[in-house]
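Bench notes, afternoon.
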Amino acid sequence: MAVLTIAALLSSGANSRTVMSGAPDVGGVGEVAIFYYPWYATERRDGQWQHWQQNGNVPPTQVASGWFPARGPYSSSDVSVVRAQMREIAATGVQTVIVSWWGAGSAEAARLPMVSRLAREVGLVVALHVEPFAGRAPAALEADVNDFKEAGITDFYLYDSTLTADADWAALTKRLSGVRLFANTSLPGKARAGGFDGLYTYDVNLYDGSSFPRICASARRLGLVCAPSVGPGYNAVRATGDVRVRGRSQGRTYDRMWRGAVRAEADVVTITSYNEWHEGTQIEPARNVGRPYGSYEGAYALTGAAAERAYIDRTAMWVKRYRTP
């Protein structure tokens, strides 16, 4: 995609973070970012259901998640929905929304201009979560990264980056300036070998926060930005059949991961996730509709309408605590 095309699509205000050429911006303690998925579609608005219907589920009454969204199964092309989501994220004190991107021509790419505009309207910085789409070779990403930089997007999180050889990433990263690329790994040496500016963990089933101080200490010794990922739990049984589960424990799981990130003095805390409903990592409000769905009822001793927002409100508390000297 040409620079002018991306720049024109995303021209409604540049990101607030300034990155000097050749010197990646280390946010320092206090930067919080959240992973966001613009991949949902409804039959009424988009002509078909997307990301609500997996594993035999039949929306709108059945959805591919162990929880039921308070907004119901929504469309990520609905401006009113996305505007409300961006306002909700910004109100927690989170500074950056990391938008899932599946390459040029994808539904997520088509929605990015709208998501970016609405995020920036409420003061959020926009970053990209570069997913492992077909053809995602480092050499092929160079033009896209530079184009997005021209449009004001300068942070890129490379999911499953370890699937590609370190040397191939290094060949790309040495040619880039004015951007930050984050490797999806807990191994600082591997991130350094690929020439990345930092690392993030993403997986809140594998990591519980206890290893964050060690990971970040090692990352700092190598001059890397440490951006470990915190989340409320993991449960993808209803969406994918994955039997691995990390329970929410009425909020204790989320708190434990945040404590690990705070103890680590993480440069950036990344949150998995705002709305990855398939894997049950979402903090977006959920409605208590009864079986077979779970609910946030009882989390942090909250009930009723207050419980629907339990994880959004807890995020605001942790962001404030993390950013307070």
